[in-house]
Amino acid sequence: MKPTQTDPTCYEIRVVGSLPPQWMDWFDGLVINTENGETLLRGPVADQAALFGLLKKIRDLGLPLVSVRQIPSQEKKMNTNVIPAKKIDTKVLLSTLWIVVMINMAYADILGLFIPGALEEVAKTSVSTGTTIPQLMLGGAIMGELAIVMIILSRVLKYGINRWVNIVVGIFTIAYIWGGMSSYPHYIFIATVETLCLLLIIWFAWKWRNVEAR
Length: 214
Known about the structure:
About 60% of the residues lie in helices and about 15% in strands. The protein is an alpha+beta fold and about 210 residues long.
């Protein structure tokens, strides 16, 4: 006679700190929800050994443990159909926003070619700033390439340097956009879109927490 197979016991583990849902696999498929600076891990745990293993992982991450609670059967049934909210990875989010900025910068340059007297304006800017036209063009090329490079760097740089590079380059790019201000409506519109994206980049980078980058 085969022994009766029992379902795994469900637990609810609460810790201080934020964990993105991408950590579900590392925590053996437990559902992860973050709210008000705390993270709730919830789901079935095979046995006591597995539970202790999860607690060890939490300790290794340096997350203060708030509580461990076994979920009653009735409550477990009520939460069976709960679908965890998914959070976009910060690196992906920053990289995507830089793509939007880069496309808008290129679009503004293309539309600028159709402005009557555009070359004369470049010549006037050259005289007023004391730089040659090739130097002005080189500066524009560098800023365009910087946005392209940030698309890659946002995905590959480690947490600490990634945060500050996005913040510093974001601020510098905003200054560049409005420093070369044009009164044409299309430029003001595109510059506004670029600035909103850059402000989001700075905001998300500033709010980015180390535990998410591990």
